[in-house]
Specification:
34% helix; 3-stranded antiparallel beta sheet; binds zinc ion; alpha+beta
């Protein structure tokens, strides 16, 4: 249960202890040298020392729990970070920087950077989280088009577009998503959703013994042959679900993911620089992969987000390079 009166949202020290409990369940770990021998780490208690500072007796370096996390060197109180993290983890369609700015009493600009750092913590490590699908499992793949492209590219009008709705693709940003039925999603911003771009994403994320479901788009035809099975539904003919030898063939799962994403991007975020799109995709993916249907509570999702904050420092400089918009 979300309890706004919980001290971790109001007291920076309580917030720090909360973060320590998540990151260091067995006692502090030195982020500089990796020393986790708690007999070789001392907590600095001096009057002039700020709370939560430890010193490593191996490398002689001082540290706190935020070193090496997206919260490092922030002037915003850690309790505000913990609250913002909870709000972003539990709001299905996201929460705007304007809303955070008002709720946390920080400037809009601070809220904007804060939200982007939290999104950075939401990024999944696809390498360590393993492949999607596998033998006997189903992965739905689909692409969608959303928001105006910033490079001014307008795809040439071509005859014989597979079906009406994709006409919306002209001049828009392309996103490809893979969803394992009953499992996780991965979303990718691509320059162009071509056969080659989609193949690269599929073979890097989904093993060949997986069953692939897509719509009739020709970008999946050749790659589909590399998979254990490839079934399609013909949306142009009004076919959204097809029953075949006990299989329920559709791409509704991935389309629902796109639907939540678009509603959030239109209703909550409104403006999103193309350079930042990958972080918004990470945000919606993070929540979907820990959705209530998988029996993950809001509190657990928020804790996993705080845990993911390590080793993903996003400096102001790095975000600035990608423009503040
Ligand atoms: Zn050390």
């Amino acid at each position: 249960m979300f309890d706004l009166t919980n001290e971790i949202y109001h007291d920076a020290n309580k917030a720090r202890e909360h973060l320590e409990a998540i990151h260091w369940p067995n006692g502090p770990i030195c982020p500089h040298c990796g020393n986790c021998d708690t007999t070789r780490i001392v907590k600095l208690m001096g009057k002039s020392t700020r709370p939560g500072v430890y010193k490593c007796n191996e490398c002689r370096e001082p540290f706190t729990v935020t070193v090496g996390t997206v919260f490092e060197r922030s002037k915003i109180g850690l309790h505000k970070w913990v609250l913002a993290t909870h709000l972003m983890a539990s709001s299905k369609k996201g929460i705007s920087a304007h809303q955070l700015h008002r709720m946390l009493g920080i400037t809009y600009k601070s809220a904007w950077f804060m939200a982007h750092r939290i999104r950075e913590a939401m990024k999944e490590d696809n390498q360590s989280s393993g492949p999607l699908g596998g033998e006997g499992k189903i992965v739905e793949a689909d692409e969608t088009y959303f928001g105006k492209r910033e490079d001014g590219y307008v795809s040439p009008a071509r005859k014989g577009r597979p079906y009406k709705s994709k006409k919306a693709a002209i001049g828009k940003r392309a996103v490809v998503a893979l969803v394992e039925r009953g499992g996780k999603v991965r979303m990718f911003h691509v320059k162009h959703a071509t056969k080659d771009a989609v193949r690269d994403i599929l073979v890097c994320n989904v093993p060949r013994d997986t069953i692939l479901y897509t719509d009739e788009s020709r970008i999946y035809t050749a790659t589909g042959k590399e998979y254990a099975d490839h079934q399609t539904t013909k949306h142009s003919a009004g076919e959204y679900v097809r029953y075949d030898r006990g299989m329920v063939i559709h791409t509704n799962t991935v389309e629902n993911v796109f639907s939540v994403f678009k509603r959030g991007m239109i209703g909550v975020y409104q403006h999103c620089g193309e350079a930042h799109l990958h972080r918004y995709l990470a945000e919606f993916g993070f929540r979907y992969n820990r959705r209530t249907a998988l029996k993950v509570s809001d509190a657990e999702r928020a804790e996993q987000l705080l845990a993911g904050a390590r080793d993903k420092r996003l400096t102001y400089r790095r975000i600035n390079e990608a423009s503040y918009a």
